[in-house]
Amino acid sequence: MLNNLRAVFFDLDGTLLDTAPDMALALNIQREVHGKEPLPFSEIRPYVSHGAAAMLRVGFGLEQGHKDFDEFRKQYLNIYADNIAVHTELFSGLEELLNALAESDIAWGIATNKPEFLTIPLLEALNLRESCRGLVCGDTVKPTKPHPKPLFFAAQQAGVKPVQSVYVGDAWRDIAAGRAAGMKTVVAEYGYIQPEDKILEWKADAVAKESTDLMKLLLNH
Fold first, then answer.
1. What is the pLDDT of residues 74-85, one digit of tens each?
2. pTM of the full predicted structure?
3. Fewest beta carbons less than 10 Å away: which of 14, 39, 149, 209?
4. How far is CA 196 from the centre of its chain?
């Protein structure tokens, strides 16, 4: 995909890690606290990449600006922080991919809108923090994706140029940020794609239908 590939950067939720089971768990715990029945996982999963705001929209019909939004958001994040790595794991094939990148002396990193207080404990719980050469969270730099600044910063941390890098993500803002940064981009179609998403309109350089497709797309393996 890129002959002089020096780094691969990933979005976190729905791209590198399958965090949906724990984010859905937290939402259903919160619903139980408020006397509501749990929602089916299939209803929650497509919206996980859009964070707490999307979870509250799905779980309680709350939008930003509602008088209860901030209180519910704080409660949700606290519940999620307490259940950060119960079921979360790397998507299939991603452990092998990270090992292959290391063997090829290609850096890998993360650019996510997830805040540091959730991202870092999660990576540490899964023993991924040390090998991650660039880590940019939603409160590391501003503005966040779809602005390219987080990807510029991630590349700087990893000691590579954006044009030597690929960014993989499962949301339009990921692909927009990657394109604006001058990186090659890959849509993680296996991730948390919403029913209304039209991924071909995002104009990524490639689409990974399954997580196991990334090895071939990135390293021609």
1. 999 999 999 999
2. 0.95
3. 209
4. 19
* DSSP-derived secondary structure letter, 13: B
Enumerate the domain spans of the chain. Answer: 7-18+88-219, 20-82
**Are 68 and 78 a contacting pair, CB within 8 Å?**
no
Cα distances (Å, whole numbers) of residue 50 to 23, 57, 95, 151, 215 = 11, 10, 24, 18, 26
Rounded CA separation 191/145 (Å): 17
Annotated active-site residue 213? The verdict is no
Cis amide leading into 143 (omega within 30): yes
Catalytic annotation present for 13:
yes
Distance CA 159, CA 153 (A): 10
Q: What is the pLDDT of residues 182-212, one digit of tens each?
A: 999 999 999 999 999 999 999 999 999 999 9
Assigned CATH topology for domain 7-18+88-219: Rossmann fold (3.40.50)
Q: Which of 13, 18, 22, 170 is catalytic?
A: 13
